[in-house]
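We examine the record.
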Amino acid sequence: MSPRHNRSRGGARPEPQVDPGNRYGGVQRTETWQGEEWYVRLVAGASAPGKRYRCPGCDQEIPSGAPHLVAWPEYGGVDDRRHWHKACWNAKDRRTTKVQRSRNAPRY
């Protein structure tokens, strides 16, 4: 019996097309909020970089490695991207305009 060959015997493989704006992977979709089109991309916890973000919905920290989503307006740039907890993004229409921090919440 001949040994198994695990490498391909064909020609060169095509290089995968990678979107340079898609740093975190995930699936991107478009949603309408407050009369604007928003791009929303899910970020898996394993692919999240070692940074911490502050969720604009609840004003709490998103720890590094936690799954969350990134949202930005259709005509916005890189500086307009915001990292949200998934539950906060889904509840954004039910929240008040002014988020109140608790007494023990950090001020940074």
Q: What stands out?
A: Residues 20 and 76 are 16 Å apart (CA to CA). Helices lie at 86-90.
